[in-house]
Amino acid sequence: MAYGLEDEFGDIIGKARRGQDLSASEIATAAGITEAELTRMEQYTLKPTETQVFRLAEVLNLDGSKLLDIATERWEPEPPHQTGNANLEVITISAPVGGWPVNAYLLICKATDDAAIIDTAAHPDLILEQLDVRGVNPTAILLTHAHGDHTNGLPKLQAETGCDTYIHKNEPKPQSNSTLREVVHGDVLSVGGLMVTVVNTPGHTTGGCSFLTQNVAFVGDAIFAGSVGGPNISYQDEIDSVRDNLLSLPDTVRLFPGHGPSTTVGEEKSHNPFF
Asked: Residue 13 sits in a domain of what CATH number?
């Protein structure tokens, strides 16, 4: 990638085009460019002009000004400083899967040293190492969705920690050593003294969900800094669920995605071209 975001200009226009079931030929014609130029833009081998960015944004129902800031690499989210909560800590565990970094997280209740493991980044050993280093007690495994880069290694984590694993009722089930506990929108789970609310964010997968506690949310592949996850199931469901269930939260809520840097609700409202 050219800079710190998970998705570049080419990823964004490609996801918007495929999500709306529009062909490269249709988009190129409407935007006044050739199909070959559009293909090169999606493959990062051709930088668009400002005029082309705005034409493509209009055709793809994206925000042109926000898209231009990403095309010209003028925006990245501010890095986290303090969560604002003295009673929780978030540890990011990022490791490559198939050549691309994937994030897992530990959500730690500082009052009790209990912790939830959120996704696996397909590297259970790294998670187990962090549990030992931090000296915390894992009490639950929370899965935002079932894709292998976020769930591979789950049986080892289950065997080593003895934790129950929670996944949305509508999500396909990954390989597991034990019966998975199903959750739905609005369910509340406890991690030590923290109350974690399940929030529906389908579209990337059928039962994708996010986990919200206080001013942090773990969002899987529903939304990235400046982009969204691939709308494999429903583009409209992904856009609607993120807008209604995540971007409706206070601006200060920090979003921890399955790929790329963390961001905030306020930053995404101001800079994400899908919204």
From this structure: 1.10.260.40
Comparing CA positions, the residue from 121, 215, 31 lying closest to residue 42 is: 31
Point out which residues pair with 164 in neighbouring strands. Answer: 140
Q: In which domain, by residue range, is 64 found?
A: 9-71
Q: What does each C-alpha distance from 16 to 165, 189, 217, 260, 275 come to in angstroms?
A: 33, 34, 24, 19, 12
CA distances from 157 to 114, 120, 128, 175, 201 (A): 16, 8, 7, 12, 25
Reference 197, options 180, 208, 209; nearest CA is: 209
**Does the pTM of the predicted model rise above 0.90?**
yes
Task: Report pLDDT digits (tens) over 43-92.
Answer: 999 999 999 999 999 999 999 999 999 999 999 999 887 545 789 999 99
Would 76 be classed as within a structural domain?
no
Number of domains in the chain: 2
Check whether residue 140 and residue 233 sit in a common domain. Answer: yes
Q: Is 275 exposed, middle or buried (0-12, 13-18, 19+ CB in 10 A)?
A: middle
Angle at 46 between CA 274 and CA 42, to 5 degrees: 40
Is 106 in the same domain as 229? yes
Instruction: Specify if 99 maps to a domain.
Output: yes
